Amino acid sequence: MCHCDVTGSGHGEAMSEQTMIHNEALVPVLAGLQEQFGERILQAYAGLDCPVAVLDRGAIVEACHYLKREHGFEQLVDLCGVDLAEHPGRAEDAPRFEVVYHLLSVSNNARMRVKVGLNERELVDSVVEVWPTANWFEREAFDMYGIIFNHHPDLRRILTDYGFEGHPLRKDFPLVGRVELFFDEAQWRCVYRPNKLENRVLIPRAWPGVDRG
């Protein structure tokens, strides 16, 4: 069941007039999504800065078309991945990854955030057909997290090189990496060698004389 909480942060009278107006504008978007997609809207609520809708990943392309056409979200400002493997509030059966879509309506001066969850090796459809700017954003999420976007026109790495192994922003990827790249003068080309760096343990320290109480 979709839980639409459009009451803001719950601070009552302390809520600013600007926030109240903003939240009133959220109701049609969330209500429209719920009416249009029903149970495929897993959760919908007014976030701290914009409305948030969590969708079944099979509905992402259709929902994005709807938001662009009916609510004027003509821009995809950003798309990113999230690895929830070590998140303290994550349930054991919850998806490990999230894809987060940050939408902007210039005409309505409104923003919205859409999320879908998925596990490793599960596919989510590309939204390049809705917003062409998703092309490089999805490639970055693939490169950094290994999230696979179905029907993407050119899904390949964009920040790491083609021979790179692994996905650097996953929680299980070593902080110092696995290999290092250097230029070999004898072979006159770039080659890999095992990384000899050791993980550093950073211990917070207070400046002398700082009150620790």
Short description:
The chain is α/β, with parallel strands linked by helices. It contains three helices and ten strands; from the N terminus they run βαββαββββαβββ. β9 (about 180-185) and β10 (about 190-195) form a beta hairpin.
Mean pLDDT: 84
CATH superfamily: NADH:ubiquinone oxidoreductase Nqo5 subunit
Termini Cα gap: 47 Å
Number of strands: 10
Tally of contiguous helical segments: 3
Q: What is the CATH topology?
A: Beta Polymerase, domain 2
Name the helix and strand elements from N-terminus to C-terminus, one letter apiece: EHEEHEEEEHEEE
Q: What is the helix fraction of residues, given as a range?
A: 10-25%
- Give the overall shape, derived from the CA principal axes: globular
* CATH class identity: Alpha Beta
CATH hierarchy: architecture: 2-Layer Sandwich
Q: Taking strands numbered 1, 2, ... along the chain, how are they ordered across the largest sheet?
A: 1-2-3-6-5-4
Structural class: alpha/beta
Rg, nearest Å: 21 Å
Number of domains: 1
Largest sheet: 6 strands, mixed
Strand content bin: 25-35%
Q: What would you say this structure looks like, in words?
A:
There is one protein chain. The protein has helices at 17-37, 60-71, 134-145; strands spanning 4-5, 41-46, 51-55, 75-83, 97-105, 110-118, 123-125, 148-150, 179-184, 189-194. It is α/β, with parallel strands linked by helices. Strands 1-2-3-6-5-4 form a six-stranded mixed β-sheet. Helices cover 21% and strands 27% of the residues. It has one domain (4-160): Beta Polymerase, domain 2. α3 links the parallel β7 and β8 (148-150).
